[in-house]
Amino acid sequence: MNEMIETILNHRSVRSFKDEPLTEEQIKIIISSAQSASTSSYIQAYSIIGVTDKKKKKKLAELAGNQSYVELNGHFFVFCADLYRHEVVGKMTGKDVISSIESTEKFMVALIDTALAAQNAALAAESMGLGICYIGGIRNNLEQVCKILKTPDRVIPLFGLAVGYPNKETTKKPRLPFEHVYHENEYCQDAEIYMKQLESYDQVVSSYYQERTMGKRKDTWTGQIANMLERQSRMYMKDFVQSKKMNLR
Amino acid sequence: MNEMIETILNHRSVRSFKDEPLTEEQIKIIISSAQSASTSSYIQAYSIIGVTDKKKKKKLAELAGNQSYVELNGHFFVFCADLYRHEVVGKMTGKDVISSIESTEKFMVALIDTALAAQNAALAAESMGLGICYIGGIRNNLEQVCKILKTPDRVIPLFGLAVGYPNKETTKKPRLPFEHVYHENEYCQDAEIYMKQLESYDQVVSSYYQERTMGKRKDTWTGQIANMLERQSRMYMKDFVQSKKMNLR
Questions:
Q1: Where do the structural domains in chain A lie, given as residue ranges?
Q2: Would you place residue B168 in the very low, low, confident or very high pLDDT band (cuts 50, 70, 90)?
């Protein structure tokens, strides 16, 4: 196994960072890495905002549900799906690009492009001995986040990426069984097999939590996910995204 | 610069592969790498389908716009956003998760989760000396792709990933200027700066094409992107995604 695969398999989210800012050089490497990812038809439909202003970081940490590591880290990046750039391209070239950039297809393209770039950034950081944590919590209140970051229409902050030197070792959460995630030639819909795989995974996850909490926490994966989904969250998203003139047609 | 960052920065898409299938071991490493990516609240909202059946590969290559490398490669993966799994979780636990999994928020989560996993897979492959190419072309006709792969509702094949030993060296396409993609503290909307950056990038891209084609091709980035967006494509996507019971509310 090579070093890169070791880094990839060794990933765990870090939620406590040393008070040591990233260097300019590190930031440049992380952004260049992000930009080196594949992009759909060369569209490059994302922007990255590095937040260094202390007040802004504090406010973002609050909005993300009081996550201290959004404020306290080596650097905080916000990855944004960006089709505003392409609206400008339309203006510069005199071409009508609006229907296209308001389509669900291009909304999907922008999300995928942004995530591919972000994962390159995350791995570049990890390969330099830094820890990372994705912050979906910024989607709790995107109207506010957009105000803080002064993003135009057709730009949607998707998630933050907190990066820095880890304060402590964290553990790796077990993933779904290989056979459950990987299908050959067709999707296995056999209900019995499907549920058995989830049940056996529940045991793995439950053991993981028990070990980690000395028996206090026994959550299964299905239980945890069902609770999370039953609660519902960010149900304003459809309207919000459309108010930003994306995912409209 | 470490080896991982070198691999990341050295990425280029490969569109011609040697006739040498990946080993079981390589496939396992690629899938495990995909699964090691961060996942929003542990939701793991994706599945991966490896297509080895020759007829299916041929058909997918046609649907993707006659891209031969979809058929001829070391292995062809299809990455799918998957919330069907979570519908099953709802049934197993007796919780009502439907509103949640039909939301635009969870549609976004599934897309991001899938793309993060895919980029890990892509990099793991590249670190093993393999080449990769993302195939967005499968979105030309998802109804057909879903039939071939027998995916249930709430599963959307997002893109393919062709992997294999490269037949020839390809070149690296220049990316948008660093200052254009990376903002500090707020999104720079200054129209003059914004357009100047794109104009200077146009020159870089144009030189790249000229050099590569001995002067035959002189496309700028803005020109290329404007043409692509003006044409419109896959405008059926909104209805299609909603017919699969995602992005509904």
A1: 3-168, 178-229
A2: confident
Angle B98-A230-B106 from CA coordinates, rounded to 5°: 60
Q: A121 and B120 in contact (C-beta within 8 Å)?
A: no
Please, what is the average pLDDT of chain B? 97
pLDDT category at B170 given cuts 50, 70, 90 is confident
Sequence-ordered list of residues with C-beta below 8 angstroms from that of A243, at least 6 positions apart, any chain: none
How many other C-beta atoms lie within 10 A of the C-beta of residue A223?
17
Query: Mean pLDDT, to the nearest integer, of B210-219?
Result: 91
Residue A226 confidence (pLDDT): 97
Q: How far is CA A191 from CA A96, A205, B46, B91, B226, in A?
A: 48, 21, 18, 11, 46
Strand order in the sheet with A46-51: A131-135, A155-164, A75-82, A46-51, B182-184
Asked if B116's CB is within 8 angstroms of A11's CB, the reply is no
The whole-angstrom separation of Cα A221 and Cα A216 is 16
Give pLDDT, residue A142: 98
Q: Enumerate the H helices of A160-218 as residue ranges.
A: 178-181, 191-212
Q: Which two tokens stand for residue B240?
A: 């299609």
Its CATH architecture, for the domain B3-170, is 3-Layer(aba) Sandwich (3.40)
Query: Tell me, what's the ipTM?
Result: 0.97
Contact residues, chain B, for A111 at CB < 8 Å:
108, 111-112, 115
Instruction: Measure the CA–CA gap between B32 and A23, rounded to whole angstroms.
Output: 32
Measure the CA–CA gap between A105 and B198, rounded to whole angstroms. Answer: 24
pLDDT at A150: 97
Asked if A240 and A141 touch (Cβ cutoff 8 Å), the reply is no
Look up residue B107 and give its two tokens.
């549609």
Question: What SS3 class is residue A54?
Answer: helix
Residues 74-103 of A with CB under 8 A from B: 80, 85-86, 88-90, 92-93, 95-97, 99-101, 103
CATH, range A3-168 = 3.40.109.10
